[in-house]
Design brief:
about 280 residues, alpha/beta, Rossmann fold, 2 domains, 11 helices
Length: about 280
């Protein structure tokens, strides 16, 4: 029986623990004291599951329900021979885990990325409902970027009856947007499209909203930030320009923890099959 230790994360990790137990794994969890769950230790786990993505902006391990800050270095020192399963294994994590037998980055799995993008897009609709007073069927929605999440989100918004425009840089993406029956916007002309929008969903993880763009957003419009830091805009600049920006991180774990856990488990099982072959 494979032994799995889950450390930190949001409610998807709690759901993942239950799911893996059902599959016959021996599972312990740590970092959920605020939910009334005491830490469980495990001597030499075969796998250590970290959050997806694994880190906060300050470098600490994402553990919103832990009583204390968790650091990757101390975890690796404690479990030096385990295989680590995590999301977005960056240069800092690779440096810390130098010498670890193996790690699995779920973000290297295209099937996981597609599933996670769909869950994020569906959860973005829920996030919109927190702030909106207008139904999507009466809303004009602008989506910036046209990657995995944006593609799913545009289709979902369109299916809800919204008028949808999508901003992209690549000519092929602009053609795809038009072919989907949506309004294509060249990213270089973003400022011209912003006054049209009732709500903006950003998926671009870099500053595309400068002061000129932010001043073009109508008062009262909500900008829902789905991207990773540094986000689509400088948050202080947005506040100065009186734009309502709502940062919505880790949406699958917040709204659909069971489905998000299944996506991680399926990725893990695919990696296990590779190791057997």
């Amino acid at each position: 029986m494979k032994r799995i230790l889950i450390i930190g994360g949001d409610k998807r990790q709690m759901a993942l623990a239950a799911l893996l137990k059902e599959k016959g794994y021996s599972v312990c969890i740590q970092g959920f004291q605020k939910l009334g769950v005491e830490d469980e230790d495990m001597e030499t786990p075969d796998y250590v599951f970290l959050p997806v993505p694994y880190r906060n902006p300050d470098g600490s391990v994402k553990a919103p329900f832990a009583n204390a800050k968790l650091e990757l270095e101390s975890i690796v020192r404690r479990y030096p021979v385990s295989v680590y399963v995590l999301g977005r294994c960056d240069a800092d994590a690779k440096r810390v885990m130098d010498g670890v037998v193996r790690y699995i980055d779920v973000n290297d799995d295209e099937a996981f990325l597609i599933r996670n993008a769909l869950l994020t897009a569906q959860a973005a609709i829920c996030a919109y409902a927190k702030y909106a007073e207008t139904a999507l069927c009466d809303a004009k929605c602008l989506v910036t970027g046209y990657g995995r999440i944006a593609k799913f989100l545009c289709r979902l918004l369109h299916a809800h009856g919204a008028k949808v425009a999508a901003a992209a840089r690549k000519p092929r993406d602009l053609e795809l947007i038009a072919d989907e029956g949506l309004n294509p916007v060249c990213m270089n002309e973003l400022r011209l499209a912003l006054p049209w929008a009732d709500v903006i969903f950003n998926t671009v993880p870099e500053h595309i909203f400068g002061e000129e763009e932010l001043l073009s957003v109508r008062r009262g419009v909500h900008l829902i930030e789905l991207a990773s830091p540094p986000y689509g805009t400088d948050l202080k600049l947005a506040e100065k320009c009186m734009v309502n920006v709502h940062v919505e991180p880790s949406l699958p774990g917040l709204y659909y923890p069971v489905s998000a856990a299944k996506a991680i488990a399926h990725c893990f099982e695919r990696e296990e099959l590779k190791s057997w072959n």
